[in-house]
Design a protein that fits this description.
- The protein is α+β, with helices and mostly antiparallel strands and about 140 residues long.
- Helix content is about 20%, strand content about 40%.
- The chain is built from three helices and five strands; from the N terminus they run αβββααββ.
- The protein has a five-stranded mixed β-sheet with strand order 1-2-3-5-4.
- β4 and β5 form a beta hairpin.
- The radius of gyration is 15 Å and the shape is elongated.
């Protein structure tokens, strides 16, 4: 049976292939942008007969600095693209098994593009929904 920790680590490892993007498989107290943070969301148990598969849903929060609004939006736009070397979708799906922890992984959507306050600092962020299918 896959563990949430191994799936979370596998997603973060795949994200580390994006040049200049920091990754965290746990929620840091003080994020240092640009950073992608992998956050477990839900688990759907027993998706196949005899407990053969679970569906794990993760949210990947991508946070960029806002020193310059236009630069921050351009950077986040590149992460949100379905193509290119900065694509979060392509990076996560680059190893569909997450180093053997999953049967498959898919990025299904990007949402919540906008400002986020962490501590007392305002950043720009987008949230990606990731489904991992594992036993």
């Amino acid at each position: 049976m896959a563990s949430i920790s191994s799936l979370r680590t596998g997603i973060a490892t795949n994200l580390a292939t994006v040049s200049g993007l920091r990754t965290s498989s746990t929620m840091p107290d003080n994020p240092n942008p640009p950073i992608a943070i992998v956050i477990p969301s839900t688990i759907s148990f027993d998706d196949t007969f005899q407990r053969g598969m679970q569906t794990y849903t993760f949210n990947v929060l991508v946070v960029v600095g806002r020193a310059d609004e236009r630069t921050a939006q351009n950077k986040l736009d590149a992460y949100c693209s379905s193509t290119g070397s900065s694509s979060i979708k392509l990076a996560i799906e680059s190893d569909k098994t997450l180093s053997g922890s999953a049967f498959d992984v898919r990025v299904t959507e990007m949402r919540n593009y906008g400002q986020i306050v962490i501590g007392e600092v305002t950043y720009l962020s987008g949230e990606f929904t990731v489904l991992a299918y594992a036993d």
